[in-house]
Each structure stands twice: as C-alpha cells, then as structure tokens.
C-alpha cells in the first residue's frame, strides 16, 4: 500500500515541500532513499522504538520510503515524524481522513515524545502559501510560528497527540497568535541609558542620526572614552521591529536553530538584534556557511545592529568581506555543495583606537607608537570600507569635573521618541515599505534630496576639497535627508549639508 505525507526543508530561509512516499509490500526489508544523510538514515531505529510506546509496530514487510524531490539532499532529524505517520498509514494501522492537508515535522525520541527542529517559522509561512490546512510541530518549535495566523499551527508533545490531530478528534487545539507588550525597562534589558553617560554630546547626536536613518557609524577615540558604552546604549533608542521586519529576522533565527526573543519564549522577535562578535571570530562564523549553510553574524544582525569593537583587530580578509553586504544588504554563500542567500540589512557600528597603544594625539606624550606603526594600524581599514561608513566620529576623553557633575543628560526615552518620529517620516516617504534613508537608490536620492543653489555650492566645494568619491557624495545626501527629517523639515538646508559633511572626518 502506498501512502504520502508531507514534510519540509529549508534552503537558506526559503522553504520547500518534501513529499514522503511510503510503500509497504510483501517481503522483509527497509529502504530509505532520496539522498538522506546519516541523521535521516538513523530514523529507522528511532521510529521502530517510538511506535512501540503507542501500541503500534514497525511492519515486518518490505518498506520503501522515498523523500522527494530525490535530487535534494535531506539533512537532520525533522523527517522522523512524517516517516512514522506514513508507515502507520501505509501499513493500515491507522486511517487518517485528511493526511494530505498537513505539513508534519519533528524529531522522535525513543519514548515517543518530540524534540524541536530548526526552521519552523519559514516552514509555517511556506505551508500557508501552499494552502495546507495546518502544520504539526513539536510544541517548542510551534511557539516560533504561533503568530502566523494564516494557517493552523499545532504544537504537540508526542506521537499520540499527532495521531489525535490527524484523526480530527479535537483533543488538541491549534495555537493562538500572541499579543506582545514589552514593558521591561532598559535596566531589565541590560541596556545603558544615555542619561547615565556624561558629556560626549556630539557622539550622542551622531548615534541619534545613525539610528534614525540606519546609517553606518565609526567611533575613534582613546581607551575609556565611552565608545563601547555608547554603542550598547544605541540599542535603547532603536524602535521595535515592524511586523515585516520581525518575520524576516525571526525566520533567520529559526533556520539557525537559535530562536530567542530576548527572554521571551514564544511568538516573533520584537526587539532589534544587537550582535557583537569578538575580533577573533572566524570568517565563516561572521559571514555564514559551514557544513549546513547556517546564517552567520551578518545575517543574525538583520534589521538590527552589528557592533565591531576594536575594528582594526579583525582580520583584513573579514573586513573586506563586509564591503559587498554593506552595499547589497544580502550575502550570497556559494560552496561546492550548496548556494544560498541570506538577507543582512544591518547597521554597522564600529569603534577603534587611534593607534595600537590608544593614545595617539593626546597631551602628555602618552603615545609611544612610531609613525609607521600608527599608519600600519589604521591601514587595516581600507578606503573602500571607510567610504561605506556614513558617520565618522572622534571621541575625546571626558573631563574629570564633568564625570563628577550631578547634571543629568538627556534620557534614551527622549532620544528614542525623536528617532521614532524620523522613521515614521521615512516609512511614509517610501510608501510604508519600512525602509530608511540609508537604503535610497539613485533615482530616490534624486527625487527626495532636492538642493538649492547654496546647498549645491557647499557640497561641490566639500567634494573638491575633501576629494570625496561618488559614493561619499551620495551618502552625504542620504545623511542630510535624515538630519532634515530629525528637524521635521521637508527640504534640505545648508546646515543639514554642513553637519553631514563634518561626519566625513576620517
């Protein structure tokens, strides 16, 4: 008897349907075909033992299991459940009235319980597009996809509950979408508040502009001047993820098997990612790839922040690999066995010292670095990479009397309110596509960045004197547009252009 069940697999964040064909006939053998890896081939032992826990058995006949399409390599243990259900149906132990209406995924334990599998969210979205009635997942994985209201998402704990759903007994109900309200303070989220940071008002201004338009920013200053602290505080002024952004980001974390909502165990992610890899991190860990084509730090920072502390300490190879993702907002990973693409629309925030010892240019002859060492240190950041960073900031030490002052600075909540208003202006400008000024194309720059004669004259002078590239010219226009949005102005003025130009100091 031939029976079909439906499972799924992910290529990057794109999901595809895998048809599990099970044929039970006369004979004694078990064949599993369709390019299965070791984890899939070992499913026979897990399924055999798990079926005994519900009073069923593995038929003592000839069993052929085909995973179609046959030219796609099947990896992982998520096919266990679909194969087990197919065997039960093909052997006549159960009759399921609507087996073809469900996408079924899960890893079987020997006691019949289910363990979570990666990729639940993109698979649920795919199942909805393919007009499946529902998707059956281990309860931990189902919590990732419970906010997808276009399809019934069933979270089950064991094989017996899966059978109950397929028999339509009504004892297991689909999960309901969640209503998410984040009432945690910045302290509870372990994010510094800008009101706790003394001085550095020009750096705070630069970070506010960067957050408003999702612009890349580089801070250069002596050790202890607050670069890392202010970079971490940046997370407190970023607006929450919009639904489209939330789905995109959550899909990446789901495929990576690292789904986490900053302490929240269910539903989509709502807080923007803040990734801060160490400078010793490997190239593959940052860009993605490996044996299973998993997303790297660039993609995990999608719609959020990628913070690179001590930028020159990263390998030259890794820094140069940043150039293409910063422009295209997508990273293409090509290996001999696969080719996948992951979105990586992140805001780059970087910090560095002015020299190896960190005190170049400071009074008191603190710096002991020879000129060639300073040059070699700074040359690790190439011109093309520096050209892609919109805001360059010099961070000076904070005077002692200001550190001991009782005067409070502006809070992160006040800055976040201005950032939110600026982003709302940009969302309306780009027809509610949830894009920011940093993503403007050349035609959009021409449409939204009109300049008067005085503004054109100032910009032309800056381009000539600073020897700016065409890319730097367009990035100044994008930055000026963001500064104007923060001021609530529809047109770009000379002051907006001047402020944007001063951020090209390095």
How would you sum up this structure, described in words?
The chain is α/β, with parallel strands linked by helices and 506 residues long. Helices cover 37% and strands 17% of the residues. β15 and β16 form a beta hairpin. The radius of gyration is 27 Å and the shape is elongated. The N and C termini lie far apart (72 Å). About 1% of the residues have low confidence.
At a glance:
The protein has about 500 residues and is of the alpha/beta class. It is built from 21 helices and 18 strands.
Q: How are the elements arranged and paired?
A:
Elements: E1 2-11, E2 14-25, E3 29-33, H1 38-41, H2 43-52, E4 62-68, H3 80-90, E5 102-104, E6 107-108, E7 114-115, H4 120-129, E8 134-138, H5 139-145, E9 152-156, H6 159-166, H7 201-213, E10 217-221, H8 227-233, H9 243-256, E11 274-275, H10 283-287, E12 288-289, E13 294-295, H11 297-300, E14 305-308, H12 316-321, H13 323-328, E15 330-334, E16 339-343, E17 347-352, H14 371-378, H15 383-387, E18 391-395, H16 400-403, H17 412-429, H18 442-448, H19 453-465, H20 470-486, H21 494-502
Parallel strand pairs: 3-4, 5-8, 8-9, 10-17, 10-18, 11-14, 14-17
Antiparallel strand pairs: 1-2, 2-4, 6-7, 12-13, 15-16
